[in-house]
Structures
1.
Amino acid sequence: MAEAGAVAWQFEQKGVITVDVDEDQGEEFTLICIDLGADDIDTFDSTLQIYSPPGSMEAIRATLEQNDAHIRSSELSRVPSHTISLDGKQSLQTLRLLDRLEELDDVQRIYSNADFSDEALESYRVE
Protein backbone atom coordinates (compact mmCIF):
# COMPACT_ATOMS: atom_id res chain seq x y z
CA MET A 1 0.00 0.00 0.00
CA ALA A 2 1.15 3.53 -0.67
CA GLU A 3 1.67 6.18 1.97
CA ALA A 4 -0.99 8.82 2.55
CA GLY A 5 -0.75 11.48 -0.16
CA ALA A 6 1.39 9.32 -2.48
CA VAL A 7 -0.67 10.28 -5.53
CA ALA A 8 -1.95 13.67 -4.35
CA TRP A 9 0.55 15.41 -6.65
CA GLN A 10 -1.61 14.26 -9.59
CA PHE A 11 -4.57 16.34 -8.37
CA GLU A 12 -5.21 20.03 -7.72
CA GLN A 13 -7.67 21.30 -5.15
CA LYS A 14 -10.29 23.37 -6.95
CA GLY A 15 -13.65 24.89 -6.27
CA VAL A 16 -16.22 23.16 -8.48
CA ILE A 17 -19.58 24.83 -9.06
CA THR A 18 -22.27 23.18 -11.17
CA VAL A 19 -24.95 25.47 -12.56
CA ASP A 20 -28.06 24.69 -14.62
CA VAL A 21 -28.47 27.35 -17.33
CA ASP A 22 -30.83 28.29 -20.12
CA GLU A 23 -29.37 28.87 -23.58
CA ASP A 24 -29.43 32.64 -23.18
CA GLN A 25 -27.72 32.53 -19.75
CA GLY A 26 -24.70 30.38 -20.58
CA GLU A 27 -22.52 33.05 -22.14
CA GLU A 28 -23.46 35.67 -19.53
CA PHE A 29 -22.60 33.36 -16.62
CA THR A 30 -19.37 32.27 -18.32
CA LEU A 31 -18.20 35.88 -18.64
CA ILE A 32 -19.11 36.62 -15.01
CA CYS A 33 -17.09 33.61 -13.83
CA ILE A 34 -14.07 34.53 -15.94
CA ASP A 35 -14.12 38.07 -14.55
CA LEU A 36 -14.18 36.66 -11.00
CA GLY A 37 -11.16 34.40 -11.58
CA ALA A 38 -12.53 31.05 -12.76
CA ASP A 39 -9.77 28.76 -14.08
CA ASP A 40 -11.89 26.73 -16.48
CA ILE A 41 -15.52 26.27 -17.50
CA ASP A 42 -16.96 23.15 -19.11
CA THR A 43 -20.34 23.24 -20.85
CA PHE A 44 -22.54 20.13 -21.06
CA ASP A 45 -25.94 20.67 -22.69
CA SER A 46 -27.63 23.05 -20.23
CA THR A 47 -25.03 22.74 -17.46
CA LEU A 48 -21.93 24.77 -16.67
CA GLN A 49 -19.20 23.24 -14.56
CA ILE A 50 -16.98 26.01 -13.22
CA TYR A 51 -13.50 25.33 -11.83
CA SER A 52 -11.87 27.98 -9.67
CA PRO A 53 -9.09 28.46 -7.14
CA PRO A 54 -10.47 27.52 -3.69
CA GLY A 55 -10.29 31.16 -2.53
CA SER A 56 -12.46 32.40 -5.43
CA MET A 57 -15.19 29.79 -5.23
CA GLU A 58 -17.41 31.56 -2.70
CA ALA A 59 -17.29 34.91 -4.55
CA ILE A 60 -18.21 33.20 -7.82
CA ARG A 61 -21.04 31.24 -6.19
CA ALA A 62 -22.45 34.34 -4.45
CA THR A 63 -22.34 36.42 -7.64
CA LEU A 64 -24.05 33.67 -9.63
CA GLU A 65 -26.80 33.49 -7.00
CA GLN A 66 -27.24 37.28 -7.19
CA ASN A 67 -27.75 36.85 -10.94
CA ASP A 68 -30.48 34.22 -10.38
CA ALA A 69 -28.37 31.21 -11.37
CA HIS A 70 -29.69 27.78 -10.40
CA ILE A 71 -26.68 26.30 -8.59
CA ARG A 72 -26.88 22.52 -8.45
CA SER A 73 -23.74 22.02 -6.34
CA SER A 74 -20.73 23.87 -4.98
CA GLU A 75 -17.79 22.10 -3.34
CA LEU A 76 -14.04 21.87 -2.96
CA SER A 77 -12.77 18.91 -4.92
CA ARG A 78 -9.59 17.30 -6.24
CA VAL A 79 -9.34 17.69 -10.00
CA PRO A 80 -6.78 15.60 -11.94
CA SER A 81 -3.89 17.50 -13.54
CA HIS A 82 -3.76 14.90 -16.32
CA THR A 83 -6.23 12.22 -17.31
CA ILE A 84 -5.61 8.75 -18.67
CA SER A 85 -7.81 7.34 -21.43
CA LEU A 86 -8.87 3.76 -20.89
CA ASP A 87 -10.00 1.21 -23.46
CA GLY A 88 -13.38 -0.53 -23.17
CA LYS A 89 -12.34 -3.43 -20.92
CA GLN A 90 -10.17 -1.25 -18.65
CA SER A 91 -13.00 1.28 -18.37
CA LEU A 92 -15.51 -1.34 -17.24
CA GLN A 93 -13.07 -2.81 -14.70
CA THR A 94 -12.24 0.62 -13.31
CA LEU A 95 -15.91 1.67 -13.10
CA ARG A 96 -16.71 -1.55 -11.19
CA LEU A 97 -13.80 -0.89 -8.81
CA LEU A 98 -14.90 2.70 -8.19
CA ASP A 99 -18.46 1.55 -7.44
CA ARG A 100 -17.20 -1.08 -4.99
CA LEU A 101 -14.96 1.43 -3.24
CA GLU A 102 -17.87 3.87 -2.88
CA GLU A 103 -19.91 1.15 -1.16
CA LEU A 104 -17.34 0.84 1.66
CA ASP A 105 -18.38 2.62 4.87
CA ASP A 106 -14.85 3.87 5.54
CA VAL A 107 -14.52 5.56 2.14
CA GLN A 108 -15.61 9.20 2.12
CA ARG A 109 -14.54 10.35 -1.35
CA ILE A 110 -12.90 8.87 -4.41
CA TYR A 111 -10.91 10.83 -6.96
CA SER A 112 -9.82 9.37 -10.27
CA ASN A 113 -7.82 10.55 -13.24
CA ALA A 114 -9.43 8.01 -15.59
CA ASP A 115 -11.06 9.38 -18.72
CA PHE A 116 -14.02 7.21 -19.73
CA SER A 117 -15.42 7.28 -23.25
CA ASP A 118 -19.15 7.85 -23.71
CA GLU A 119 -19.43 4.32 -25.12
CA ALA A 120 -17.82 2.80 -22.01
CA LEU A 121 -20.12 4.76 -19.69
CA GLU A 122 -23.19 3.71 -21.68
CA SER A 123 -22.02 0.10 -21.69
CA TYR A 124 -21.55 0.21 -17.92
CA ARG A 125 -25.04 1.69 -17.39
CA VAL A 126 -26.54 -1.20 -19.36
CA GLU A 127 -24.86 -3.84 -17.15
2.
Amino acid sequence: MKIGQQIKFVVVSKQANSLHSLIADRKFRATSLGRNTWKSLVGTQASLKRNCFKKGLNVECSSTSHSKARVGILGNDQNDCGTCNSRIGFGVGGKHNDTHTCGNQARYSADNGDKMMKAMGYILVQ
Protein backbone atom coordinates (compact mmCIF):
# COMPACT_ATOMS: atom_id res chain seq x y z
CA MET A 1 0.00 0.00 0.00
CA LYS A 2 1.37 3.39 -0.93
CA ILE A 3 0.26 6.53 0.89
CA GLY A 4 2.16 9.63 -0.16
CA GLN A 5 5.71 8.44 -0.85
CA GLN A 6 5.59 5.65 1.75
CA ILE A 7 5.18 2.04 0.54
CA LYS A 8 4.39 -0.76 3.00
CA PHE A 9 3.69 -4.45 2.45
CA VAL A 10 2.37 -7.34 4.53
CA VAL A 11 2.16 -11.02 3.60
CA VAL A 12 -1.25 -12.69 3.50
CA SER A 13 -0.68 -16.42 3.18
CA LYS A 14 -3.49 -18.33 1.45
CA GLN A 15 -3.36 -21.44 -0.73
CA ALA A 16 -5.38 -21.15 -3.95
CA ASN A 17 -5.14 -21.43 -7.72
CA SER A 18 -5.45 -17.64 -8.05
CA LEU A 19 -6.46 -14.50 -6.20
CA HIS A 20 -9.61 -14.48 -8.32
CA SER A 21 -10.57 -17.92 -6.99
CA LEU A 22 -10.33 -16.54 -3.44
CA ILE A 23 -12.50 -13.47 -3.91
CA ALA A 24 -14.83 -14.10 -6.87
CA ASP A 25 -17.38 -16.12 -4.88
CA ARG A 26 -17.62 -13.34 -2.25
CA LYS A 27 -17.20 -15.92 0.50
CA PHE A 28 -15.49 -14.61 3.65
CA ARG A 29 -12.06 -16.08 4.29
CA ALA A 30 -10.34 -15.13 7.54
CA THR A 31 -6.64 -14.33 7.79
CA SER A 32 -4.36 -14.55 10.78
CA LEU A 33 -2.97 -11.02 10.43
CA GLY A 34 -3.59 -8.98 13.56
CA ARG A 35 -5.00 -5.50 13.92
CA ASN A 36 -1.59 -3.87 14.33
CA THR A 37 -0.25 -5.57 11.21
CA TRP A 38 -3.12 -4.17 9.13
CA LYS A 39 -2.56 -0.73 10.66
CA SER A 40 1.15 -0.94 9.78
CA LEU A 41 0.18 -0.76 6.08
CA VAL A 42 -0.95 2.82 6.66
CA GLY A 43 1.68 3.82 9.22
CA THR A 44 1.38 5.94 12.35
CA GLN A 45 -1.68 7.78 11.03
CA ALA A 46 -3.78 4.58 10.78
CA SER A 47 -7.07 4.60 12.65
CA LEU A 48 -9.65 1.88 13.43
CA LYS A 49 -12.53 1.49 15.81
CA ARG A 50 -11.76 -0.53 18.93
CA ASN A 51 -14.07 -3.54 18.35
CA CYS A 52 -15.04 -6.16 15.75
CA PHE A 53 -11.74 -6.57 13.82
CA LYS A 54 -13.16 -8.82 11.15
CA LYS A 55 -10.19 -9.40 8.86
CA GLY A 56 -9.43 -11.36 5.74
CA LEU A 57 -10.81 -11.65 2.22
CA ASN A 58 -14.36 -10.60 1.29
CA VAL A 59 -14.83 -8.94 4.66
CA GLU A 60 -18.27 -7.47 5.24
CA CYS A 61 -20.27 -6.41 8.27
CA SER A 62 -23.80 -7.63 8.93
CA SER A 63 -25.21 -4.41 7.52
CA THR A 64 -24.00 -4.66 3.93
CA SER A 65 -24.27 -0.90 3.37
CA HIS A 66 -21.49 -0.32 5.93
CA SER A 67 -17.75 -0.99 5.58
CA LYS A 68 -16.46 -3.84 3.44
CA ALA A 69 -13.17 -4.91 1.91
CA ARG A 70 -12.02 -7.44 -0.65
CA VAL A 71 -8.81 -7.75 1.37
CA GLY A 72 -8.58 -5.97 4.71
CA ILE A 73 -9.86 -5.37 8.22
CA LEU A 74 -13.02 -3.72 9.54
CA GLY A 75 -13.66 -2.11 12.92
CA ASN A 76 -16.74 -1.11 14.86
CA ASP A 77 -17.51 0.75 18.08
CA GLN A 78 -20.05 -1.82 19.28
CA ASN A 79 -18.97 -5.29 20.42
CA ASP A 80 -20.24 -6.81 17.17
CA CYS A 81 -19.65 -6.49 13.45
CA GLY A 82 -23.08 -5.10 12.61
CA THR A 83 -22.51 -1.54 11.47
CA CYS A 84 -18.75 -1.18 10.98
CA ASN A 85 -17.55 2.31 10.24
CA SER A 86 -13.81 1.88 9.92
CA ARG A 87 -11.67 -0.06 7.47
CA ILE A 88 -8.18 -0.58 6.13
CA GLY A 89 -7.60 -2.51 2.97
CA PHE A 90 -7.93 -3.10 -0.74
CA GLY A 91 -11.21 -3.01 -2.62
CA VAL A 92 -12.84 -1.12 0.25
CA GLY A 93 -16.14 0.67 0.22
CA GLY A 94 -19.35 1.27 2.03
CA LYS A 95 -21.09 3.78 4.18
CA HIS A 96 -19.89 7.25 4.89
CA ASN A 97 -17.65 7.53 1.85
CA ASP A 98 -17.60 5.19 -1.09
CA THR A 99 -15.26 7.28 -3.27
CA HIS A 100 -11.97 5.50 -2.69
CA THR A 101 -11.17 1.83 -2.97
CA CYS A 102 -7.87 1.48 -1.16
CA GLY A 103 -6.63 2.93 2.11
CA ASN A 104 -8.01 3.78 5.54
CA GLN A 105 -11.33 5.26 6.53
CA ALA A 106 -12.46 5.73 10.11
CA ARG A 107 -15.37 7.75 11.48
CA TYR A 108 -16.81 8.72 14.83
CA SER A 109 -13.88 8.70 17.25
CA ALA A 110 -11.72 5.83 16.09
CA ASP A 111 -8.52 5.07 18.04
CA ASN A 112 -6.42 7.60 16.11
CA GLY A 113 -9.17 10.03 15.12
CA ASP A 114 -11.34 10.30 12.03
CA LYS A 115 -9.42 9.44 8.84
CA MET A 116 -10.01 9.50 5.13
CA MET A 117 -6.74 8.29 3.63
CA LYS A 118 -6.62 7.20 0.00
CA ALA A 119 -3.86 4.85 -1.05
CA MET A 120 -2.45 3.15 -4.11
CA GLY A 121 -2.88 -0.58 -3.71
CA TYR A 122 -0.42 -3.23 -4.79
CA ILE A 123 -1.32 -6.92 -4.55
CA LEU A 124 1.45 -9.28 -5.58
CA VAL A 125 0.49 -12.92 -6.06
CA GLN A 126 2.88 -15.83 -6.09
3.
Amino acid sequence: MSRLRSILALILVLITTFLVSCSSAPTAKIPDTYTSEKISQLQVYVEPIDAARQKLATLQKLIADKNWVDVDTFIHGPLGQLRKDMLGLSRNLLVKDQKQAANLAKTVFGHFERLDAAAKDRNATAAVSHFRDAVEDFDAFLNLIPKA
Protein backbone atom coordinates (compact mmCIF):
# COMPACT_ATOMS: atom_id res chain seq x y z
CA MET A 1 0.00 0.00 0.00
CA SER A 2 2.79 2.47 0.84
CA ARG A 3 4.43 1.61 -2.46
CA LEU A 4 1.22 2.52 -4.30
CA ARG A 5 1.06 5.89 -2.50
CA SER A 6 4.65 6.66 -3.50
CA ILE A 7 3.95 5.85 -7.15
CA LEU A 8 0.73 7.87 -7.09
CA ALA A 9 2.56 10.87 -5.56
CA LEU A 10 5.26 10.63 -8.24
CA ILE A 11 2.63 10.52 -11.01
CA LEU A 12 0.88 13.59 -9.55
CA VAL A 13 4.19 15.48 -9.40
CA LEU A 14 4.96 14.60 -13.04
CA ILE A 15 1.46 15.67 -14.20
CA THR A 16 1.68 18.95 -12.25
CA THR A 17 5.14 19.68 -13.66
CA PHE A 18 3.93 18.97 -17.19
CA LEU A 19 0.87 21.21 -16.82
CA VAL A 20 2.86 24.10 -15.35
CA SER A 21 5.54 23.89 -18.05
CA CYS A 22 2.95 23.89 -20.83
CA SER A 23 1.14 26.95 -19.56
CA SER A 24 2.28 30.40 -20.52
CA ALA A 25 2.52 33.43 -18.28
CA PRO A 26 0.43 36.41 -19.23
CA THR A 27 2.55 38.99 -21.00
CA ALA A 28 2.22 42.64 -20.10
CA LYS A 29 2.13 45.09 -22.95
CA ILE A 30 5.05 47.50 -22.84
CA PRO A 31 3.79 51.05 -23.39
CA ASP A 32 5.20 52.82 -26.43
CA THR A 33 3.83 56.33 -25.82
CA TYR A 34 3.88 58.67 -22.88
CA THR A 35 0.60 59.23 -21.11
CA SER A 36 -0.14 62.54 -19.44
CA GLU A 37 0.17 60.80 -16.06
CA LYS A 38 3.61 59.47 -16.94
CA ILE A 39 4.72 62.90 -18.14
CA SER A 40 3.59 64.48 -14.88
CA GLN A 41 5.51 61.80 -12.95
CA LEU A 42 8.63 62.52 -15.00
CA GLN A 43 8.42 66.23 -14.19
CA VAL A 44 9.37 65.42 -10.59
CA TYR A 45 12.66 64.03 -11.91
CA VAL A 46 13.15 66.78 -14.51
CA GLU A 47 12.97 69.75 -12.11
CA PRO A 48 16.39 69.28 -10.45
CA ILE A 49 17.95 68.47 -13.81
CA ASP A 50 16.55 71.66 -15.35
CA ALA A 51 17.85 73.61 -12.36
CA ALA A 52 21.30 72.13 -12.90
CA ARG A 53 21.14 73.04 -16.59
CA GLN A 54 20.49 76.66 -15.61
CA LYS A 55 23.54 76.57 -13.33
CA LEU A 56 25.83 75.70 -16.23
CA ALA A 57 26.04 79.41 -17.07
CA THR A 58 27.82 79.90 -13.76
CA LEU A 59 30.24 77.11 -14.62
CA GLN A 60 30.90 78.68 -18.00
CA LYS A 61 31.75 81.99 -16.32
CA LEU A 62 34.10 80.25 -13.89
CA ILE A 63 35.89 78.61 -16.82
CA ALA A 64 36.13 81.91 -18.70
CA ASP A 65 37.60 83.57 -15.58
CA LYS A 66 40.03 80.61 -15.21
CA ASN A 67 38.90 80.16 -11.63
CA TRP A 68 39.99 76.52 -11.52
CA VAL A 69 39.39 75.91 -7.82
CA ASP A 70 35.78 77.05 -8.11
CA VAL A 71 35.32 75.05 -11.33
CA ASP A 72 36.34 71.91 -9.46
CA THR A 73 34.16 72.84 -6.48
CA PHE A 74 31.18 73.60 -8.71
CA ILE A 75 31.41 70.29 -10.56
CA HIS A 76 31.52 68.32 -7.32
CA GLY A 77 29.16 70.58 -5.37
CA PRO A 78 26.04 71.90 -7.12
CA LEU A 79 26.42 69.43 -10.00
CA GLY A 80 27.38 66.51 -7.74
CA GLN A 81 23.83 65.11 -7.52
CA LEU A 82 23.23 65.48 -11.26
CA ARG A 83 24.54 62.05 -12.25
CA LYS A 84 22.13 60.29 -9.88
CA ASP A 85 19.24 62.48 -11.04
CA MET A 86 19.91 61.89 -14.74
CA LEU A 87 20.29 58.13 -14.39
CA GLY A 88 17.18 57.98 -12.20
CA LEU A 89 15.21 59.85 -14.82
CA SER A 90 16.51 57.63 -17.61
CA ARG A 91 15.26 54.54 -15.73
CA ASN A 92 11.77 56.04 -15.62
CA LEU A 93 11.51 56.72 -19.34
CA LEU A 94 9.89 54.33 -21.78
CA VAL A 95 11.95 51.26 -22.59
CA LYS A 96 12.70 52.56 -26.09
CA ASP A 97 14.30 55.74 -24.65
CA GLN A 98 16.06 54.32 -21.60
CA LYS A 99 19.27 53.13 -23.23
CA GLN A 100 19.84 56.31 -25.21
CA ALA A 101 19.14 58.48 -22.15
CA ALA A 102 21.50 56.43 -19.95
CA ASN A 103 24.23 56.63 -22.59
CA LEU A 104 23.80 60.40 -22.89
CA ALA A 105 23.94 60.78 -19.10
CA LYS A 106 27.17 58.78 -18.98
CA THR A 107 28.59 60.83 -21.84
CA VAL A 108 27.75 64.09 -20.07
CA PHE A 109 29.63 62.91 -17.03
CA GLY A 110 32.55 61.76 -19.12
CA HIS A 111 32.81 65.36 -20.30
CA PHE A 112 32.52 66.65 -16.73
CA GLU A 113 35.30 64.29 -15.62
CA ARG A 114 37.55 65.50 -18.45
CA LEU A 115 36.58 69.10 -17.62
CA ASP A 116 37.59 68.45 -14.03
CA ALA A 117 40.94 67.04 -15.19
CA ALA A 118 41.46 70.08 -17.45
CA ALA A 119 40.72 72.37 -14.50
CA LYS A 120 43.30 70.55 -12.40
CA ASP A 121 45.82 70.96 -15.24
CA ARG A 122 44.72 74.60 -15.70
CA ASN A 123 44.12 73.91 -19.40
CA ALA A 124 41.62 76.53 -20.55
CA THR A 125 41.33 75.25 -24.14
CA ALA A 126 40.47 71.70 -23.08
CA ALA A 127 38.11 72.97 -20.38
CA VAL A 128 36.15 75.10 -22.86
CA SER A 129 35.98 72.21 -25.33
CA HIS A 130 34.75 69.70 -22.74
CA PHE A 131 32.26 72.19 -21.36
CA ARG A 132 30.82 72.79 -24.85
CA ASP A 133 30.55 69.03 -25.47
CA ALA A 134 28.91 68.50 -22.08
CA VAL A 135 26.30 71.18 -22.82
CA GLU A 136 25.51 69.64 -26.23
CA ASP A 137 25.00 66.19 -24.75
CA PHE A 138 23.09 67.62 -21.78
CA ASP A 139 20.68 69.36 -24.16
CA ALA A 140 20.33 66.15 -26.20
CA PHE A 141 19.40 64.35 -22.98
CA LEU A 142 16.80 66.96 -22.11
CA ASN A 143 15.34 66.72 -25.63
CA LEU A 144 14.56 63.04 -25.00
CA ILE A 145 12.27 63.97 -22.13
CA PRO A 146 8.64 64.46 -23.20
CA LYS A 147 7.16 67.87 -22.52
CA ALA A 148 3.70 68.34 -21.01
